[in-house]
Amino acid sequence: IVLLIFRDLPDDPAVEWDTQLLATLVLKHIEAKNINLVVTFDAGGVSGHANHISLYTAVRYNVCKLLWVPPWAGCRVLVLESVNLCRKYISFLDVLISCLLPRDALFILTEEETEQAKRAMWCHRSQLLWFRRLYLLFSRYLVVNSLRLL
């Protein structure tokens, strides 16, 4: 089963994942772990990443089940706000903008959390292309994340 999932859900920014398969996997995980809050990408996938957009689509497909059907009743979904390129790369300066704009939740990372996120990115050296190195230096997502309820 694991090989099937890796084949059908490749880590590739250009590949859309199967909505039905992903929706089923997400629901099974929610049920197995008794999850009551899901945080995912929005329809923009933060950077247009097809895998991220597919995850949003699968979760959105399941929202009625997540909110109304036991055992998922009461599970809430927050989606990470995709922002324009300028805001994406102004780092901590976006905290001021994010505080002024409407949102359902705002997370401002501590310095320790930012460093942890950077260390996690370095674990994926094969994907750490030049533009992702800029992301590590300037991305607002390593400092502030605004979310809205789905």
From TrEMBL:
GO cellular component, one term: endoplasmic reticulum
SUPFAM superfamilies in the cross-refs: LmbE-like
Coiled-coil positions: none
InterPro entries xref list: GlcNAc_PI_deacetylase-related, LmbE-like_dom_sf
GO BP: GPI anchor biosynthetic process
E.C. number(s) listed in UniProt: 3.5.1.89
GO molecular function, one term: N-acetylglucosaminylphosphatidylinositol deacetylase activity
Superkingdom field: Eukaryota
Segments traversing the membrane: none
Family note: Belongs to the PIGL family.
Record protein name field: N-acetylglucosaminylphosphatidylinositol deacetylase
Lineage: Eukaryota, Metazoa, Chordata, Craniata, Vertebrata
Gene of this entry: Pigl
